[in-house]
Amino acid sequence: DATDKGEFRHYMMKEIYEQPKVISACLDGRISETKVLTSCFGAESGFLKDIENVHIVACGTSYHAGMVAKYWIEDLAGLPCSVEVASEYRYRKVAVPKNTLFLTLSQSGETADTLAALRMAKELGYLTTLAICNVPSSTLVRESALTLLTNAGPEIGVASTKAFTTQLTALLITSVAIAVENGLSAEKEQELVQAMRSLPAYVSDALSQDAHIKVVADRFANKHNALFLGRGTMFPIALEGSLKLKEISYIHAEAYPAGELKHGPLALVDEDMPIIALVPHNDMLDKLKSNLQEVAARGGELYVFADKDTDLNNEENITFTEVPKVDSILEPIVHTIPLQLLSYHVAVVKGTDVDQPRNLAKSVTVE
Ligand code: AGP
């Protein structure tokens, strides 16, 4: 029952812990042992082969999910993909190339700017409109030509958690489905589907760091600022981590692609500025390590989230949190979990209203 907190003190924590289950529900019936089942887009899945471009529009956390999908769609399908916040998209002249898919992301399906963007897009000659949404009866679902439900179940905490990771799961399914029509080999598809099948178990593993993260959070609670760094798909996850911290703990947090450090934010780094680094295990690892050295050299206190094979560890000035080692396509999803736990525990230490943070509404239905 969604309205029962069960053993948890807050809905947010309950929803964080539901993630292995709801990610399974999102994958259920959408992948086989070897393939993405395109029937999940409904009877009209023929649109997949016609897509030449993708425009993704959303707000807040849902926008961050869209930013991850841009990396996946361009990497796996080789198609151009742009991502924009709905409140900007709806007030400008948008150039729509031939055969462009208009894709919205929304937990509630009632966000005013996202709905307005969809209504505008319907006049602009898109190939079709697809909503990735959590609420089957929502306006967004009703007004979109196609829907892929995230199946996260009701999300009550204002800070979005399970809605985000299921959006990413649904976007991964969608990205692979588009890629298959654009030359992705059956072998690679099978490899990606196998990775997806192991996702719920990896998310459970990531949750097992909860007690450690609670200790880390104690050290964090007296900070006034924080800087999140990531590269590649970890950059949108850094943005999402910083949004979570702002929303429920009221700590000012910024996120940057780590390569941008020298272009300005490095000036902020001193012993009072904690840096949260999301370390991917791919060809960007060495580049990120050198960004971390730049921070350490300026006395910055580093909180590193990485898998154990990255050779990073607790050292002076480095607090290490282990994240399960996974196929790089899954990294943005799995790395989200410790950041949710961090912001949750910081908020609890600070005594804020975790489920109902000040000034915020669960669904922004007015502009
Ligand atoms: C997330 O923690 C926020 N509360 C907020 O950014 C939210 O994601 C945004 O308002 C979009 O909502 P939607 O997904 O329901 O459209």
From TrEMBL:
The active site of this protein is located at 362
Q: Which UniProt keywords apply?
A: Aminotransferase, Cytoplasm, Glutamine amidotransferase, Repeat, Transferase
Q: What does this protein do?
A: Catalyzes the first step in hexosamine metabolism, converting fructose-6P into glucosamine-6P using glutamine as a nitrogen source.
Give the enzyme's EC designation: 2.6.1.16
This protein is called Glutamine--fructose-6-phosphate aminotransferase [isomerizing]
Q: Which reaction is recorded as catalysed by this protein?
A: D-fructose 6-phosphate + L-glutamine = D-glucosamine 6-phosphate + L-glutamate
All copies of the SIS domain together span 43-184, 216-357
Quaternary structure annotation from Swiss-Prot or TrEMBL: Homodimer.
Please indicate if the UniProt record lists DNA repair as a keyword. Answer: no
Q: Which residues of the full protein are shown?
A: 242 to 608 of 608
What's a Gene Ontology MF term here? glutamine-fructose-6-phosphate transaminase (isomerizing) activity
Q: Where found in the cell? A: Cytoplasm
Instruction: Look up the coiled coil feature and give its residue ranges.
Output: none
Keyword hit for Cytoplasm = yes
